[in-house]
Amino acid sequence: MSADHEYSVIGHSRAVVGRYLGTVAAALAAAGAVAAAAFLRWFDTLHTSVTVPDVVLWPVTAAAVFAVVLTAFDKLVWRWPLVRRFIGIPDLNGVWTVDGVTTGGAETPLGTGWTGEITISQSWERIWVHLRTPNSSSRSKAAALMREPGVGHCLMYSYRNEPRMGEPMQAHVGYAELVFDESLSSADGEYFNSKGRVSFGRMNLKRKS
Length: 209
Prior knowledge:
alpha+beta, nine-stranded mixed sheet, 3 helices
């Protein structure tokens, strides 16, 4: 089951975007309140026994509209190409094939290759990185994104790895850095493990269609 968590974006202020979203929500709420008030006044001319004070409409509408605007932006709007270009956050959602190789460590022979699949679930506020291999699976615990001009986007995250039943390796924690190219179709990175398994190596990712 997904256990997505917040992530930081270096150079991006969610507070600034939040103010923009608040302005949009306030404008929509005001327009909605005016329209609703006008409708009720018209309705009162037909049913004079039914009256609703206009002041009641503002707080209810503003709260509801802001919640809708924030949810829409977090789940969908931020992924639109023009919006992503403005806020500077790449859309890494999807499944990526992984080719890895161990380059150091006491427990694994150097040059040992391995394959797997990474699933990234990302919204504006939260992210989840899940790696599955034939021997184990790992889930991210904390993450950050950083833009590298002329190179791409660097995803840095810590994780906890759990071996499959019957595997000789122990559960362990680790850290990985993946640099995604400008087209967001591939990535190269490095990782290291500790606290249960001391090893490190490289990874190459390709986005699946």
